[in-house]
Specification:
By secondary structure, the protein is α/β, with parallel strands linked by helices. About 35% of the residues lie in helices and about 20% in strands. It contains three helices and three strands. It has a three-stranded parallel sheet. The longest helix has 13 residues.
Length: about 80
Amino acid sequence: MIEILANLDLKENRLSHYRCLVIEDEVSIRELIALVLMREGYQVKVVHSSKEAMQLLQNNSYDIIVVDWMLPEISGVDL
C-alpha cells in the first residue's frame, strides 16, 4: 500500500514542507493515516513500533507526530 501512496498526485501547497511521523502498529490504520496526510501534502514517514520510532527520532526531527497510544512495546503515551 505504501508504494501506491508514493505514486499519488499530491497537492503542492503550504503543507508540503511539514514532515510527519506516523507511529501505528496496525497496518490498515497506519496506511489510512498516511494516505490522508500525503493527500494533504505532508511529507510522511511511517513506522510500526515505538522502538523503530525512537531510532528515527534520534537522528531526525518531525513537525508532526501521530502516535498510537497502545503500542505493544512502549505505549504511545510513554514514548
